[in-house]
Amino acid sequence: MSESSDQKVIDAAPTTHAKLAAWVQEVAELTKPDHVYWVDGTQEENDRLTAELVEAGTLKKLTDPSFPNSFAAFSDPKDVARVEERTFICSAEEKDAGFTNNWEDPVKMKSMLNGVFDGAMRGRTMYVIPFVMGPLDAEQPQYGVEITDSAYVVASMRIMARIGNDVLRKMEATDEFFVPALHSVGAPLEQGQEDVAWPCNEEKWIVHFPEERSIWSYGSGYGGNALLGKKCYALRIASVMARDEGWLAEHMLILKLTSPEGKSYNIAGAFPSACGKTNLALLEPTIEGWKAETLGDDINWMRIGKDGELRGVNPEYGLFGVAPGTGWSNNPNAMNAITKGNSIFTNVALTDEGGVWWEGMTDETPAHLTDWLGESWTPDSGRKAAHPNSRFCTPIDQVDMLSQEYYSPDGVEIHAILFGGRRKTTIPLVTQSRSWAHGIFMGSTLSSETTAAASGAVGVVRRDPMAMLPFIGYNAGDYLKHWDSIESKANPERLPKIFLVNWFRRNSEGGFSWPGFGDNSRVLKWAIERIEGKAEAVETPIGFVPTGDSIDLTGLDMTPADVEETVAIDKDEWAAELTSIEEWYAKFGDALPDSLRAELDGLKERLEA
Ligand code: GTP
Ligand code: SPV
Ligand code: MN
């Protein structure tokens, strides 16, 4: 490699934002790309980049007219999900990262990363993507700039966030702060070396510096590892901003439901990865007269409004949804949005007609497919055609049921919060909390079986506070204190009511004891009627559960006795649960808020009574 090709840095950045120009220059000098390209966000640019990606073999253009202007990508088989064990929170002090995060001294980490990123973009183009999380006309737009050497990331970020020239112009007019988010796939090309379809590196680093609000990601091109506006910024970094500024950055869907009487309620739901957020956000109610509208499917930034109400905003611009299990029969709203086109699919299967397919998309399985690994596939191949964490990436404005309020920079008032996990046993279909503090207790002890959304074992029960375990950018004890403090900052009359849900409980035959999906509207109806003081409930040691006949079963092949079974509380299961919660809380030590310790004592007393 010649000396001069190391010197290919930009001479004039097309921005008056001095800090941005300086950062781009600094990164170019470190990573040594062949070119630096400023992303403008236009359709022409996207057409050009996707054509280049097709040429490079990263994307396949779908030729089935059911998927217009859409592409499929296939990752390296070892780069298919978030990598929690390679994710770091490098706060100045270790105690500020807490026991739920990997930590390394920021000075040491920076110096190590400077080595790793040195020359990392050789032979590649370095793309500069100005973006904003949430509306650009927000009172305080939340800017970021991602630098990446992956055009696939550029095309995906264009779907997932508001990017490009408008953002850059507004950001530089006010010389605004932005979150610098540096990403490299970690696969420099020597002169003449041929590229692969999905460049990445065995060595992966997903690193956050919370005090300076910056992100460094290396080695992966996949989802939350690489689209840095999403989990890295909008949850890990934003949760730190939220702690410091008195708001909440949460892993939640937002759904608006309107009753037959015309009363509207906005419901936020925190479920761990691959536990039903996108599906609930696109709910098709199965009960007469109820209308659902989508506000968000993954992230909810909540601030306290003028009247002390909690207001939620979805900072994203697209859906990055789990493909398997999303189908015409159980989620027509998602399928309609996806088939409008303009989507990027990753690690799904290809049909012989040049479309995509995944398990659960259609009732009938195609006779022949090309699976996500590129192998010929038939229904008796004995393996999945799509990877379990395969994804569709689709603009949110293609969702027909999108609420107009999605565009409101002030967001919507949140009336109810659901915490939910994937549990075969123990946790009832729905439980209303006894109070705000008890609701925080439910959130803090939320548990779920692990899924394919992160690398590692699947199906292991773990505690996942507020579904934020992999995303809390600081000490989890401080995070719970922050949640606890919301009660005194907000108007107590306007605080959302809190419910714990579990769509995944099994019956004695091993099947799901609740039909889920569109029928979850029946549970939401009960929750709303609880808020309105109308629905009946049974007070149990763990909270209020529906009576058998308080859930609307019209048109469903279920009886009130079946409902009672889905909300039954088993003494032995709860004795084991209590022990497990005590072990979980012990990990917090002194950092656990007193109110939660009191809630645990209360639960114990009630269970033992
Ligand atoms: P991330 O995008 O990874 O954060 O996941 P998510 O929380 O958005 O989960 P999603 O809605 O994509 O659902 C994940 C999986 O759970 C899919 O395979 C769904 O088919 C399945 N699922 C979602 N809702 C339900 C439900 O109500 N009942 C059952 N049985 N399965 C569900
Ligand atoms: C999740 O894992 O919660 C996702 C997918 O939504 S990713 O963007 O990869 O984090
Ligand atoms: Mn989702």
Summary of the model, kept short:
With 609 residues, this protein is of the alpha+beta class. The strands form seven sheets. Strands 1, 4, 5, 6, 7, 8, 9 and 10 form an eight-stranded mixed β-sheet that branches.
Question: Got a strand count?
Answer: 31
User: Which value, in Å, is the CA radius of gyration?
Assistant: 24 Å
The CATH class of the largest domain is Alpha Beta
Any low-confidence stretches, pLDDT <50, length ≥5?
A: 1-9
Q: Ligands bound here?
A: guanosine-5'-triphosphate, sulfopyruvate, manganese (II) ion
At CATH level 2, the architecture of the largest domain is Alpha-Beta Complex
Count of separate DSSP helical elements: 15
Approximate helicity band: 25-40%
> Structural class from helices and strands?
alpha+beta
Distance between the termini: 75 Å
Please tell me what the overall shape is. globular
Domain module tally: 3
CATH topology title of the largest domain: Phosphoenolpyruvate Carboxykinase, domain 3
Mean pLDDT: 96
Note the main attributes of this structure.
six-stranded mixed beta sheet; phosphoenolpyruvate carboxykinase (GTP) activity; 609 residues; 3 domains; single chain; eight-stranded mixed beta sheet; binds sulfopyruvate; globular; 22% strand; binds guanosine-5'-triphosphate; 15 helices; binds manganese (II) ion; disordered N terminus; alpha+beta; Phosphoenolpyruvate Carboxykinase, domain 1
What would you say this structure looks like, in words?
The chain has 609 residues and is of the alpha+beta class. The chain folds into 3 domains: 20-58 and 85-245, Phosphoenolpyruvate Carboxykinase, domain 1 (3-Layer(aba) Sandwich); 249-316 and 403-608, Phosphoenolpyruvate Carboxykinase, domain 3, CATH 3.90.228; 319-398, Phosphoenolpyruvate Carboxykinase, domain 2, CATH 2.170.8. The protein has 15 helices and 31 strands. Strands 1, 4, 5, 6, 7, 8, 9 and 10 form an 8-stranded mixed beta sheet that branches. The chain has a 6-stranded mixed beta sheet with strand order 14-12-13-25-29-26, sandwiched between helices. Helix 2 packs across helix 4 (151-160) and helix 10 runs antiparallel to helix 11 (476-489). It is globular, with a radius of gyration of 24 Å. The model is unreliable at 1-9 (pLDDT under 50). The structure holds guanosine-5'-triphosphate (GTP), sulfopyruvate (SPV) and manganese (II) ion. Sulfopyruvate binds next to helix 6 and helix 7.
